[in-house]
Amino acid sequence: MKSIASLLKKKKISQRFSFSDKDVFYIFEKIIQEEFGNVGVSKFSADFLKNKTLFVRSKSATWASELWTNRVGIIKKINRKLGKEVISEIKTK
Questions:
Q1: Where does residue 7 rank: exposed (0-12), middle (13-18), buried (19+ CB within 10 A)?
Q2: Where does the chain show beta strands of DSSP type E?
């Protein structure tokens, strides 16, 4: 007779979540607002997501540089809020 614990180990229920681009863009916007305030939200717009890379449009080179400087922390915050690694890189246009 098998124990319940051994049966539960065999039948691991893994939660698989699928995130749309819009979900990632929403989280990105919220984190930008936390980091840079409403001014930052008006300066960045998430353009598209491809192969774990988030492409972001910036209103100026200065703001693009600011995003580039803080990208590692922003990526960590996005992934933490989503619960898994969805973003590995941010590129600005």
A1: exposed
A2: 44-50, 53-58, 89-92
Q: Which CATH number fits the domain 19-92, given the four candidates 3.40.30.10, 3.30.360.10, 3.30.300.180, 3.40.50.620?
A: 3.30.300.180
Distance from C-alpha of 26 to C-alpha of 10, rounded to nearest angstrom: 36
Is 55 in contact with 93 (CB distance < 8 Å)? yes
Give 16's Cβ-side CA count (13 Å radius): 2
Cα separation, 34 vs 19, in Å, equals 21
Task: Dump pLDDT digits (tens) for 33-71.
Answer: 999 999 999 999 999 999 999 999 999 999 999 999 999
For 15-30, the pLDDT digits (tens) are 556 778 899 999 999 9
